Amino acid sequence: MIEEKLFEDLKNAIVELDDDKAVKGAKDSIAQGIDPLESIEKGLSPGMQIIGDKFDRMEVYLPELIRAGNTFNAAMKILEPEIVKAGKDKKSSGTVVLGTVSGDIHKIGKDILAMLMKVRGFDVHNLGEDVSMSAFINKAVEVKADIIGMSSLLTTTMPGQKEVIDLLTEKGVRDQFIIMVGGGPVSQEWAQEIGADGYAETAEQAIVLAEELIAGKK
Amino acid sequence: MISFYELVDRTMVGKYCPPSEFEMGVLVPKIEEVVSKYKIKADPKNPVPSDDDLADRVFQAAFELLRDVGLYCPDSERIVQFSEDELRDAVAEAPSAPVFGQGKDAKPLVARKTDSDSPPWCFIGAGGNAVSSEELYASLMEAYASFLPLADSITGPTLASINGRRVRTGTPLEVKAAIRATVLAREALRRGGRPGLSIMNSIATAGSDTAKIAGSQFGLKPSDVFCTCFSAELKLEYQRYNEVAFAQAVGAHVVAGCGPVYGGYCGGGEGMAVINVAYHLASIIALRGSCQLTFPIHFKYGCNTEPGLLWAYSVSTQAISRNSHFPVLNLTYVAAGPVTEMCLYEIAAGVTASVVSGASGIEFGGVAKCTHMDHCTPMEPRLASEVAHAVAGMTRKEANEIVKKLLPHYEGHLDSPPIGKKYEECWDIHRKTPNEEYVTLYKKIKKDLADLGIQT
Questions:
Q1: DSSP codes of every residue in B256-291
Q2: How far is B452 from chain A (nearest CA, A)?
Q3: Domains annotated on chain B, with CATH
Q4: In chain B, whose CA is at the least distance from the CA of A203?
């Protein structure tokens, strides 16, 4: 009963975007001896799912997604050391390096995707905009990424996606990463043409595809 | 108005703000504050409201937003701030009737009021949609000149390839393509019989300041335009300031563009309405525009015909038309593509909402979200211009009822719209005429629109 209440408190903390409540809930759960991984799985993650669903229905927007992520992180600051102490790993849907390609400064769609992926349990490294080829690759190697996700909002910056793939191939590390591409002018045909592993038109489709591609890789 | 040099000074000495802090630390809290303070509440069920007090409150909220937030310069990581007096002066001193075009195509662009029967400006064509070859580019531009009698200015396509190579921003290919596009555009308009028409989106192919300035030397006249855009939200890079500096030196117009993202940092309809007006003010004082060009985009659907966004678009346009004499052009993006009923219904809804709300004019078009290569024809902008003229003089109340009847024709398909056909699949690209299928569809939809009250 106590456990259920604490999970409910953690879930509500996320939904209410209440950092203090999330921190308190995390501390209380540790004090009660609850496995921190369970607190994430049964408390924080369901709360993030609710926020994600509300976003899908356009009841909340990008600021709320970001705040929910911050609330999640506030709780994780308390829970993560306990997870490490116990010698466990937080379950992750996968590790993603995300960015808008070199020469392109559009960001909002990519930021929305980054937040939705975090909501769905991915570890996301958002490199920002105008990201060089080497920045994509170096970060992907550093964090042992499953996926490199590249966004392009202009027809004339789309070739930047191919440039990263070509460089990965040149370096002999293409097979280490799943490459996903997206953004306004990007299409399935373009993705196939440049040798990407996946293309999605919307953020929701991108998440489903990412999960499928990672599952397929394993 | 503050001088351009003073403006540039402020990009270098303004308050420092790390990139990670501007949106969530400065912008979003202020948007939320003014939306609450001025009691702005979205009503997507009535996409074209008739609430003058609401429109005026949106304008006040936007004024306060820009005054307190300023404009972010990502290059210097500093905020350019404006005082209340400076913003008021800018509104008072803003251009009111800039003349675009040359010869018999020269015409002043004037602001309109809500419910006005004055004819709206029609800035029509491709809306920057990408085309895959120079042949298609030239064919389209010539067709725009010859097939669009209501065009007051042209919006050209983006040339996506040059000499068999994909154009890449930031490389010599972009410069080459920008030059080629300008040369082709000017020649095509001459072939189409309207050499004096202003190319109001300047060089859509050019993303960088270098390419835009280079391309302009090969056919853009001062009566044409430097179309220069803010980044979402409320950001202005040095490349854009560079373009303004050049435009001022050659005496060219600046069309100040903005594309706020619905569902992004400005939130939903309320924040979208406010920020669209904030951009109007920023277009005057920062981009030194001759007019504002706005193209809000729904982050999920990639268009701006969704009812929540239509509401924001309408309200912000009303706010602008009631409180400013600086012209504003509304660009409609539709989700569906050529030779689809959905596309034409979306056009009717978006254009109607804009014109009756007091937009000085329309830009069209953004067909198939402007993201599918070669998916644009002169037929869509033609309908847009005919609808724009047809609804001038309609009241917002009447328009609201019509737009509500148009919504069921497309609203349910925004998440999977038909992209329709490519230009060469439904047009004779040599004779520059539509095929019979498209003409038949066009006539059908025009009849449907007439039955709804839009007599084109």
A1: EEE--EETTTT-SHHHHHHHHHHHHHHHHHTS--SE
A2: 30
A3: 99-452 (3.20.20.460)
A4: B300
pLDDT for position B68: 98
Closest partner residue to A159 (CB to CB) among B32, B168, B370 is B168
- Which tokens belong to B164? 């068999």
In percent, the amount of chain B with pLDDT more than 70 equals 100
Helix (H) or strand (E) holding B248: helix B238-250
What ipTM score was computed for the predicted complex, to two decimals?
Answer: 0.95
Is there a contact between A112 and B166 if contact means CB atoms under 8 Å apart? no
**In chain A, positions 82-121, which contact chain B (CB-CB < 8 Å)?**
102-109, 111-112
- 8 Å CB contact of B231 and A106: yes
A125 within 8 A of A143, measured Cβ to Cβ: yes
pLDDT band of residue B221 (cuts 50, 70, 90) is confident
Identity of the residue numbered A162: K
pLDDT in tens, B66-105: 999 999 999 999 999 999 999 999 999 999 999 999 999 9
Instruction: Return d(Cα B270, Cα B31) in angstroms, integer.
Output: 9
Q: What is the pLDDT of residues B233-283, one digit of tens each?
A: 999 999 999 999 999 999 999 999 999 999 999 999 999 999 999 999 999
- Residue A47 pLDDT greater than 90, yes or no: yes
A/B interface, count of CB pairs below 8 Å: 83
CA angle A126/B259/B256 to nearest 5° reads 125
Q: What values do phi and psi take at A83, rounded to 5? A: -65, -45
Mean pLDDT computed over B119-140: 97
d(CA B261, nearest CA chain A) in Å = 7
Chain B residues touching A62 at Cβ < 8 A: 263-265, 267, 299
Q: Which domains does chain A have, with CATH numbers?
A: 2-85 (1.10.1240.10), 94-217 (3.40.50.280)
CB of A158 within 8 Å of a chain B CB? The answer is yes
- Give the C-alpha separation, B32 to B37, whole Å: 9
Find the distance separating the first CA and the last CA of chain A, reported in whole Å. 37
CB hemisphere CA count around A188 (13 angstroms):
6
Nearest-by-Cβ selection for B267 from A61, A159, A185: A61
Mean pLDDT of B203-221: 94
